[in-house]
Amino acid sequence: MSKTAKLDLGDKTIDLPVIEGTEGEMAVDISKLRAQTGYITYDNGLGNTGSCLSDITYIDGEKGILKHRGYTIENLAAKSTFLEVSHLVYAGNIPSKEECDALKSQIKENSKIPEGIKSIIKSFPKDAHPMGITSAAMVALSGFYPDLLDQDLTDDQKKKAFPLLMGQLKTIAAAVYRHGQGKDFIESNPKLDYTSDFLYMMNGEEPNEDVAKALDVLLVLHADHEQNCSASTVRVVGSSKANLFASISAGIDALWGPLHGGANQAVLEMLDAIKQDGGGYEKFIAKAKDKEDPFRLMGFGHRVYKNFDPRAKVIKDYCDVVLEKLDVQDPLLDIAKGLEQTALSDEYFAQRKLFPNVDFYSGIIYKALGIPTNMFTVMFALGRQPGWMAQWKEMIEAPGMRITRPRQVYTGKTDEEL
Ligand code: ACO
Asked: Are residues 308 and 364 in the same domain?
């Protein structure tokens, strides 16, 4: 029997349908609330609002569980490549060998960027933030692939779009890095796998296997994360039927903020500041707890996880392995571990259920791989692109898809006259 929720609004009582997700999540469906009652809902930061029905990613924030299409993130990180997980997230299944080979070759065919995009990247000042350049290059691709600008893409166009954007963003990200270093761009090497090719285009030499594997695992861990700020942005922009390039570029912009993907850069800067300050992290914990001080412990806390972020657990264990394999001793890792332990045993963080998130340890690995701090969020974008594309595709294919257009509670002046 289907469930309902009763809503009592004084003179009126209505029954609202309840939707149950496949993992047991319950949602009160208020789609007809305003039509039936004249009321709207208010939900600051949308923390209680399910904005869509989705088959892609499931999170249980209380238990610290993350699954893509039913597979746990731990399982995927241990056994799958970034390309396989990208296919899983976008197309819905772990690819067969044939599907994987086809995707690899389609991405390779799409790994050259147009000369115009190279010129756009080169037109930026060398010290411009890589996220701004990446976002600009992404939206500029719309001018080079007019066949993907139709309002309603066919299945063939959607199939074409996926390897195209995967190939293009990989090369754009490497070119953005080279530009910042004042170096010439390097063409994609078709002999290499996705992640190795990216590192090759960054550094001009085939990467060591351990380095490529470490980056590949990081990309897997970032592949999707349901309705986070950037995925929601992609959906909102795409809901106006703005094209795919514009939607993904908007996602890159949303990711840039330090409360979202930009936290990976902010964490490393914070750990560096602690080191410069003599290594005592207690002072920074006190600042984070001080309500008069805007400082927050970067890489800590999450809207959904009220327990360990499972991605952070994988990355933390991986940090030790990678640093040992690459023979890198980084004092920032010890500072991060000390900071984490102190915060976890502090009442302030315990009460608010603030745990390390995916960004807390990822920067230490990027740094060990030789990636500069201002490129960290671009690495995140490279990993997240399959998720954005999957969210966008699911949104445009959803039955009854409508433009996203929330309402508001007006609190301004009334009846002014000139
Ligand atoms: N340091 C100190 N206090 C914190 C932190 C933090 N990192 N995060 C949350 N809090 C406190 C808040 O001040 C608030 O305290 P109060 O109840 O006394 O007012 C309480 O915990 C709840 O915080 P909210 O801001 O309501 O939590 P919200 O869900 O809105 O924000 C967010 C989540 C943005 C991730 C937040 O925890 C934060 O700013 N963290 C630091 C930035 C960061 O690491 N972002 C990356 C997130 S993961 C990702 O996007 C990839």
From this structure: yes
Helix (H) or strand (E) holding 59: strand 57-60
- φ and ψ at residue 21, rounded to 5 degrees: -75, 165
Top mutation candidate among 230, 302, 359, 380 for ligand 1, by most atoms within 8 Å of CB: 302
DSSP assignment of 278-345: TS--HHHHHHHH-TTS----TTB--SS-SS--HHHHHHHHHHHHHHHHTT---HHHHHHHHHHHHHHT
Its domain, for residue 28, covers 4-50
Residue 84: both structure tokens together: 């396989």
pLDDT at residue 321 in the model: 86
pLDDT (0 to 100) of residue 1: 55
| Centroid of chain to Cα 11 | 45
In tens, the pLDDT along 93-127 reads 999 999 999 999 999 999 999 999 999 999 999 99
**Co-location of 28 and 146 in the same domain:** no
Quote the pTM value: 0.96
- How many domains does the chain fold into? 3
Q: Is the distance from the beta carbon of residue 153 to the nearest atom of ligand 1 less than 6 Å?
A: no
Same domain, 175 and 242: yes
* Closest to 53 measured CA to CA, from 92, 83, 19: 19
Structure tokens at 79: 């056994």
Residue pLDDT, tens place only, 388-411: 999 999 999 999 999 999 999 999
> The CATH number of the domain where 82 resides is what?
1.10.580.10
Residues 175 and 316 in one domain: no
Whether residue 259 has its Cβ less than 6 Å from ligand 1: yes
Report if residue 403 sits inside a domain: no
Active site residue 293: no
Annotated active-site residue 302? The verdict is: yes
141 located within any domain: yes
